[in-house]
């Protein structure tokens, strides 16, 4: 079968620069949307996955396995588990056991600011730095107990909707109705912790008028999860549940799966709208070229060859749009911080997401061209040649 | 024929997609690693119930650390009274009714005693362990072994390893009888 040269398809795209430009732009927008949706889902999943360490176990209140914030356990649990379970990781004799309070509180830059935003405040002791090793203090220092001091994660400004300059070390924040001084900034790349504020455990307990902790996070050394589980079941009086940290965050990820499904469904529905629009454009474009297509058949080109050439045209426009969308996605969407109930996570536009976007662009070009091309070639040659 | 534009386009697309060949880092294990299982003592389970067992609550009051104890109860106290990978479970006193003792209760996990106060559960509970020479629970689960299941009736012969004011009562089991104790009729 004699094929039309690829150059024919390329030149045809140039016959109507406006139409070609709109086709490229349409494909670009649809692919960009798919890249954004995939980046959102990937970013959220990766953030939750990175937040769990397979050597960490969380002790929290029985019945609160799905939310640390709802959990309440006696303040003695940290020291009890450290004393009762041998084989926990230690540094210079200090066990890696972090008693913590997690609570979301309204935070304002000034006492009279409207619309305070909720920020997850984590009350910790210095042992938290032994357990959560991804946390690195980038500026300032760790908060001291008894001074109402806090240390902000790198994504906290985004979470609060405030400028970095408003949250510099030395400035103040109003948590609930109290004034707190920012004494440090920390990074915890890729984890939910980067959107948190950390303060001294005792200060947060005093501020929230609570005596209990939310949880104890500990790092296993020679001990195994079963040892911690055994401790929790032995101490029925403490009403504890032991859960591997990875399983806790996997549970959170599965809790948010419906949200991810909605994101995908929205993207696919809009993509379907874009596809239908593209089909409409192609029907109009190809039907205005019926005489040209009839002439090509007179010249000896078979219908299959002509369909192939039309699909090439469409694929070129769609793939140009997909490439453009991938470049825009990589340049503007990758790492873009998104606020969510788990904190802030960054959109991830990695090789998988880009490949998905390019594949979607190619599918768009193929599906968008085939039906109009087949319809345009349905007419008998004499009628095609007489078409207006 | 000028193929420069489409060729450049395809090359750019390939360049963007090619990093897909990057080697992905191995995902972290979802659960902490476990040590190899240890075997239970061959003579742990006995076929005849030891005579004169005390209830769990009575045994907690009567025996102190290091003392021998024979006590009878049923497995329960929480949704999962067994510990995966450890020879350990919680035994409850018969005096505390399980949810299944109430015919109107449709609880799906009646062995968790969810209808009872936590303080009562703690007061009526004992932790049974099968340990190695160092006193650590053997690294093998007991669930399903010799018919051990939630609400199984068990008579334990062992030594009190730990007892404190918080209600903790840990017994190192030496012998265990699983099943209802048949009372012989007086002659």
What does this structure look like?
By secondary structure, chain A is α+β, with helices and mostly antiparallel strands. Chain A folds into two domains: 6-49 and 256-386, no CATH class; 63-238, no CATH class. Chain A is 50% helix and 20% strand. Chain A has helices at residues 6-15, 17-50, 77-84, 128-131, 156-160, 201-208, 225-234, 245-255, 257-287, 290-298, 303-333, 351-376, 381-386; strands at 56-61, 90-91, 94-95, 97-108, 117-124, 136-140, 149-153, 172-175, 178-187, 197-200, 215-219, 240-244, 337-340, 343-346. In chain A, strands 4-5-10-7-9-8 form a six-stranded mixed barrel. In chain A, strands 2-3 form a two-stranded antiparallel ribbon. In chain A, helix 1 crosses helix 11 (303-333), helix 2 (17-50) runs antiparallel to helix 9 and helix 9 packs parallel to helix 12 (351-376). The two termini of chain A are 29 Å apart. Chain B has 187 residues and is an alpha/beta fold. A five-stranded mixed beta barrel of chain B has the order 2-3-4-6-5. The longest helix of chain B is centred in the N-terminal third of the chain and has 14 residues, at 4-17. The chains are: A alpha+beta (388), B alpha/beta (187). The A-B interface holds A 5-7, 10, 49, 52-55, 57, 62, 220, 224-227, 229-230, 233-237, 239, 244, 246-247, 250, 316, 319-320, 322-323, 326-327, 330, 350-352, 354-355, 358 and B 1-3, 5-6, 9-10, 12-13, 16-20, 22, 27-35, 77-78, 80-81, 83-86, 88, 90, 118-119, 121-122, 125, 127, 137, 139, 166-168, 170.
List the defining traits of the structure above.
heterodimer, A: 388 residues, alpha+beta, 2 domains, six-stranded mixed barrel, two-stranded antiparallel ribbon, elongated, B: 187 residues, alpha/beta, five-stranded mixed β-barrel, 3 helices, 6 strands, 14% helix, globular, disordered N terminus
